[in-house]
Design goal:
Blueprint: H1 3-25, H2 29-41, H3 53-70, H4 74-79, H5 81-106, H6 112-122, H7 127-134, H8 141-171, H9 176-206, H10 211-232, H11 236-250, H12 257-291, H13 298-326, H14 345-352, H15 359-366, H16 381-409, H17 417-440, H18 448-471, H19 475-504, H20 510-525
Helix pairs in contact: 1-2, 2-12, 3-10, 3-11, 3-12, 3-15, 5-6, 5-8, 5-13, 6-8, 6-16, 7-8, 8-9, 8-11, 9-10, 9-11, 10-11, 10-12, 12-16, 13-14, 13-16, 15-16, 17-18, 19-20
Amino acid sequence: MQEAELTVWGILVAVAMLLVVAYRSRLPYPILLVLGGLALGFVPGVPVVRLDPDIVLLVLLPPLLYAAAFFSSLRDLRESVKPISALAVGLVLVTTLAVGVVAHLVIGDLSWAAAFVLGAVVSPTDPVAATSILNRLHVPRRVVTIVEGESLVNDALALVLYKVAVIAVTSGSFSLLDAGGRFLLNAAGGIAIGLVVGFVVAEVRRRIDDPPTEITISIVTAYLAYLPAAKLGVSAVLAAVTAGIWLGWNAPWLASPSTRLQTFPVWQILVFVVNATLFMLLGLQLHRILDDLSGFSASTLLGYGALVSVVVIATRIVWVFALSYAAPVAVRLLPGHEPGSRPNWRSLVLISWTGMRGAVSLAAALAIPFTLDSGAAFPGRELIVFLTLCVILVTLLVQGLTLPLLIPLLAIEEDGTSEREEARARMLAAQAAIERIDELQTEDWVRDETADRARQLMDYRSRRFQSRYRDGPDGAFEERSIGYQRLQREILEAQRRAVIELRSEGRINDDVMHRIERDLDLEDSRLEI
């Protein structure tokens, strides 16, 4: 086996082992993959891995943005628009300024413009990190919505600030009016492209009923929105997010049940694999970046990295609490806020501690040009890239590892809103089914005993979920339901064993077995136990 093949084999084995450890330890897998990448980067014989920013920004990021937006709740985003805006706009500006000022005053190698480039690079939270970590921690849905919504939107302003700061360094000129106009144009252009792509794709998918084709179109949609926006110089992030939200809202009318059953697992695996790839690549960058900074001592680099990381984390904490307590017209970050009431400090702590950075920041840092318009080297480029990686590692490791410990200490639990909404929706759906059965009972093709049996099933289902929605779980209903589901599972397992035995004896082929197996699996997936 050649050296390159051995290296690839070793990295794949390491990734698989880290994912197994993450599953067994219940730790967020991005953290373990970053640590694994850091360790692998210093293993003798492992080649230097250079993360091309175009790979991240143009290949890996679009499907992640699209998927996060597609599966988000438009209602929840609309209800949380004020806190999301405060974090995605206000906090990005404040973080850019705070990091820029501190970096310039403390790090003599960074000019004002270069320091603000660093501030813009580390100002946006990462949608990949936020989604992959928070979804495993069972925090209140409102908090998840705010953090996810912030991470989906704040890239637009951050990348505009980044472009303006880079232009200021390379050309030596800066215009505040130009920066404001560029942001508005970029945001409006990105949203417009996302809406157009979303509308066109929806019209195409309405006319198709073929799962493989529709799944392919759904994956390509992320690039159909992102790439034209990037080419035109407007916000490609907002384009992909807007298309995802539009199509996610209209999805129930676009796809057949068979398509939905196949599409969701495909996206789940795709997002997981891309996430794992990104975080592993992040960890592999440190060795190469340190090689580019041989002129600095280790203690100096660690001090600079710790300083910038503390500024990033502290700025978020101060901004969240100041906005909720001190501002005259406060944008409250919590659900159910009434004028004159005090915010829940526990939820504020949680929101302020969820500012993880990720691959977007590193890709932006790596995309900094090597030279100025004059031909001279871009001042402090390698240091900016190193400090960006430090912020990513500190926020991922420190905040990501402490979140599972922080939530129990804060006594924060899910409020049960989603469960109550689900129970009520299932109850109303069962009642709608009963009404439809009554309407169809006079049809020639509906037999009385069939209608009665279907009505009894729906009536039981309605009363079962009604007990959850109104009076809390009813022991009798739940006990009967669990017993029935246990019986159903035993019946399904008996059918599986019979079909496998027929295949093993050569009485049916594998295609027949797989078709029957799929039907049994679909029935099994409906069971709650």
